[in-house]
Write a structure and sequence with these properties.
It contains seven helices and no strands. It is mainly alpha-helical. The longest helix is centred in the first third of the chain and has 16 residues.
Amino acid sequence: MGPWPGAAAVGEPLSSDTIRLLTEIGFAAAGRGLMAEAETIFSGLALLRPEAAFPYIGLAITRLNAGQPDEAVRVLERDGLSRCPGNIEIRVFLGLALRLARRGSESDKILLAVLAEAADHDAARLARALLGSP
């Protein structure tokens, strides 16, 4: 911890609280159509936390909100899964992006695998909803 509350630890450019705040701002920007701003925030977060899922999910949501589901798929496959192999959150959002890109059979395969692997994980709720399962 730095010299004041919320300060980053030595060697860390930003505190966890600041990272969380930037993530929230990024999602708010993506939701409001501020795509360039959201892209900048999530790209920066991916540099700071390359092994975390949230920057890649944020970049994908930004692309989905811009009506670019194929690009969201590319972000999740190329960047997200290559840096966070097997991450369940990335995989469920990949299932969503594939569905929106009209690649239903690929989406179903990923979402069914998520359910089989971790039926009680929070991501499984989204997978069930996308599959139309109770």
